[in-house]
Specification:
Layout lengths: L9 E6 L8 E6 L2 E5 L4 E2 L8 E2 L4 H5 L4 E5 L5 H4 L2 H4 L7 E3 L1 H13 L8 E3 L5 E4 L2 E7 L8 E7 L2 E5 L4
Parallel strand pairs: 3-6, 6-7, 7-8
Antiparallel strand pairs: 1-2, 2-3, 4-5, 9-10, 10-11, 11-12
Length: 164
């Protein structure tokens, strides 16, 4: 696979596209990557108690160029895998206040202090994760504080709606 250049703007879904659950999306630009969501899914057909995570190998191979994890909302299919995958990444996590409370609890259960890495973003807030400028856009959904994301780089802008 070629590396992104300053003119490229890449979208790489590692889970969640074409299925319900297991959302994990990567956006790439100028040799940097931004992860959006990191969820689980339940495979009721095979085993109703089995939880599945997206395959994080690609992300772990890129961990030095990962600018952060941005969470759109607190449904398990968007945040359920964060505490399992994050220890291999060690990057900042960005979430709105409600989602942040649930993330803190997931890490507390695993005895991991995430305090220095979890950054709270106010509703309709903006964060700069160079080369990504991310603007949270409050939406309507079946949970508190759902968000779409306007992700802007010098190569272009994309609207990530969280669920589609």
């Amino acid at each position: 696979m070629n590396s992104p250049t300053d003119r490229d703007f890449w979208f790489l879904p590692l889970g969640g596209c074409g299925e319900i659950g297991m959302n994990l999306n990567l956006f790439g630009h100028d040799h940097h990557w931004l992860m959006v969501d990191c969820g689980i899914t339940f495979n009721a057909d095979l085993n109703p108690t089995r939880v599945e995570l997206p395959d994080p190998k690609f992300v772990m191979d890129l961990s030095d160029s990962l600018t952060g994890i941005v969470l759109t909302h607190a449904h398990e299919d968007h945040i359920g895998a964060v505490a399992h995958i994050w220890p291999q990444l060690g990057c900042k996590i960005y979430a709105t206040p409600f989602t942040a409370v649930l993330i803190k609890e997931k890490f507390r259960e695993k005895h991991i202090d995430i305090t220095d890495y979890l950054k709270i973003v106010e509703l309709n807030g903006k964060i700069n994760l160079d080369p990504f400028n991310v603007e949270y856009i409050t939406l309507t959904h079946s949970i508190l504080e759902p968000n779409g994301l306007k992700i802007q780089t010098p190569a272009g802008v994309v609207l990530h709606t969280g669920d589609w």
